[in-house]
Amino acid sequence: MNDQLTAENELHILGKQNIAGYQFTGIEGGFGEGKKAMLVKEIADIHSKGWNHVNELINRNIKRFKDNIDIVDLKSNRSERLQLSELGFTNMQIAKANNIYLLSERGYSKLLKILEDDT
Questions:
Q1: Are 75 and 99 in contact (CB under 8 A)?
Q2: pLDDT tens, 17-61?
Q3: Containing structural domain, residue 65
Q4: Cβ atoms within 10 A of the Cβ of 83, count?
Q5: Alpha carbon distance 113, 107 (integer Å)
Q6: pTM of the full structure
Q7: What does DSSP assign to residue 65?
C-alpha cells in the first residue's frame, strides 16, 4: 500500500460521537476534504468482532480495497502530524498491531459485504 496523508486528505478528529447507541471517534478527511472515515477497531466493536479478526479479513481481501479511496493503513503512514494515541490507541495496541486501518464510507460498505460473507 502506498498510504500518504497530504494536506488535501489530512485527518480531522472531531472527538467522540454517539450514533445509534455506539460511541466512536468522529473523523473527517483521509479520503478528501469533509469525507467521513472510521477506524476498523471501532467497526469491529460495532459488529461484535475482534479487531484482529476484521484486520485479517481485510488483509485476505485487500485487492477489493483501493488505497486512499477505500482504505488507509495509519500504521504504515509516516506522517508525523498524526498521533495514533489521539485516536484512542494505547502504546501496546500500536506496537502489537500489524495494521491500523481507516476506512472511507465506500471502504466500510466493502467491508460489510466481507463481514456478511464471513458469517
A1: yes
A2: 887 788 888 898 889 888 999 999 999 998 999 999 999 999 999
A3: 7-118
A4: 11
A5: 10
A6: 0.84
A7: S
